[in-house]
Amino acid sequence: DVTGVQTCALPICSVMYGEGATGGVINILTHKKGIGQGGQVGARVGSYGQRETQATLGKEIGDWSLMASGFERHANNHRDNFKSNEQSMLLQGNWRKESNSINLRYASQTLTSGLPGGVNLSDFMNRSRLSYKPQDHGKTTAESWFAGLGGVVSGWNWVSELTHKRKNVESVYVVDGYATLNQTPTNRLGLRAWYKDQMGALESKTLLGFDDEIWTQNRNDGSRIEQKMQAIYGKYELSHRTSGVSGFVGARRTLAQKQASSGIDGGVNDRNTSADGGRSEEHTSELQSHHDLVCR
Q: What is the pLDDT of residues 259-270, one digit of tens each?
């Protein structure tokens, strides 16, 4: 399913992906064709009581490609009170006709596990599976909804993406007598448009984009953290197909607001502008040299 892998080393990926890409970006490119017709069922067993089952079903209906898959895993793991149970599912539908597309996806995951905690070195050497906290446990649930639209208008390719994620993390510490619950919803809207042009041996690409994201975390101790981020960015690439020389320039403007409420309330407003430019030269079909300039 993978057609290629693109890597973007820091700091030249700041325009496309923002300041969150602190370690760079690895972009995995997959086939744009449909999911396919048919099904697959699999099972696996392993050490420490590991048992896995998985099922996938694909269906083609006209221009729609539909898929449903489920996964379940049980394991005792290498410690007492470290049993884990995981269930996940994925529902996906893709519609494509000429240059227009619709992508819909829903995913969910539930993970329950014991929390064995730490032990001192002497007890670990005598019994590596030992846990001082045989009743502590945790549960993580996650859900995500995704909707994407794409098309072409006056030569401009465009894509809009709307994502909603919700994650709950619950931990119960019986020995210490307390519990924690973090609820984290995230909403994101992304818009991108790009235009390609060719003038003889020269090929150009203009990219414009907008991101809007709201991230919130509510905790059972009454505290709350909220972050809002908006960004606009643009990038222009020009390449000479005969010589293999190409260059680009880009810029990104990000506005972020962070608010926290607890015993002491506070907030931060941050504005950041980054720009970069670079040049690459293809010496052979397998080797490229890059020269990049970054300003922030």
A: 998 877 888 898
